[in-house]
Design brief:
The chain is an all-alpha fold. It contains eleven helices and no strands. The chain has one domain. It has helices spanning about 1-30, 35-60, 70-85, 95-115, 120-140, 145-165, 175-195, 205-230, 235-240, 245-255, 260-280. Helix 2 (about 35-60) packs antiparallel against helix 3. Mean pLDDT is about 80; it is low at about 60-65 and about 280-290.
Length: about 290
């Protein structure tokens, strides 16, 4: 049991860092106008598909064709990626991450409650503490986000939550994720073609998008699916609340954002709430895992 918990914790931490890196890569590319959002999405999904295809082929020695992917999952993946890219045209890294993961956690908790999962009191307390930290992180002192950008990022979060939930039962998550990326890539190419008059790709923009697709998206999803096997919907949603903090710290390091007392206090509050929720969880026989 302890070994399984340690493994789940390690996989979760790696996945959360990867997810935060997606925000940093996207902001680096778009804030410098190194690439347009449609091209960024296309490169991201294509590079993710190629990386996962190679990984799945290495592990199974066969191409990941009909290996558990589904068009509904691929569509959710595409909707997440395209909405994410366009939202970051107008949102800051911290604000975008907040809206994204708030939407993700609401989606996953809602599904968990619908399926019969009932969080324990300490889990609820941890969730509320973490949410309070998120609110403190973005207000006051940060200007109101763009309504369109906020709506797009909320759409991305809902799509991500649905995509994660659909992937929970995958027998071979690597092959299934590779299949979904392969299905989603043509959808992104269609948008890029429609966006053709505004296409703008520099070498650095291409690099950020490729790193996001191959490392923090493709491999990150595989690791997250593995972690989900040891997490309930509530715990999965709660631990993701730490991603905006990780993204904010990444912004300090890579986007020259200023570190403040507010950032430090909110980070402590959010991570403390996550710890409460995780430590307050006690497995109940027959409780559905996700």
């Amino acid at each position: 049991m302890h070994s399984q918990t340690f493994t789940t914790t390690g996989l979760t931490l790696i996945a959360l860092i990867a997810f935060a890196a997606n925000s940093i890569f996207c902001r680096l590319a778009l804030s410098e106008s190194a690439i347009d959002p449609a091209s960024y999405t296309a490169v991201r999904l294509i590079s993710g598909a190629l990386t996962l295809w190679m990984i799945a082929g290495f592990l199974r020695h066969t191409p990941p064709v009909k290996s558990g992917g589904a068009w509904i999952s691929a569509t959710m993946l595409f909707l997440y990626a395209i909405a994410f890219s366009f939202a970051y045209l107008t949102l800051s890294a911290g604000t975008g991450a907040l809206i994204l993961f708030a939407a993700v956690q609401i989606t996953m908790i809602g599904v968990g409650l619908y399926s019969g999962e009932r969080p324990r009191p300490l889990e609820w307390l941890g969730l509320f503490v973490a949410l309070a930290g998120l609110v403190y992180l973005v207000s006051p002192g940060i200007s109101a986000p763009s309504p369109l950008g906020s709506a797009l990022m909320a759409m991305a979060g809902i799509a991500w939550g649905v995509y994660s939930l659909y992937g929970r039962g995958a027998i071979d998550p690597v092959a299934a994720t590779a299949d979904n990326f392969l299905r989603a890539a043509p959808l992104a190419l269609v948008v890029a073609l429609l966006w053709l008059p505004a296409l703008d790709i520099s070498p650095m923009g291409f690099l950020w998008a490729a790193l996001s697709g191959s490392i923090s998206s493709g491999i990150g999803y595989v690791i997250w699916y593995a972690a989900l096997r040891g997490l309930t919907a509530t715990r999965a949603a709660t631990v993701q609340l730490s991603v905006p903090v990780i993204a904010a710290l990444g912004g300090v390091l890579f986007l020259a954002e200023e570190i403040t007392i507010r950032l430090i206090l909110s980070a402590v509050t959010i991570l403390g709430g996550v710890a409460l929720a995780v430590l307050g969880h006690k497995a109940v026989p027959g409780r559905q895992k996700i």
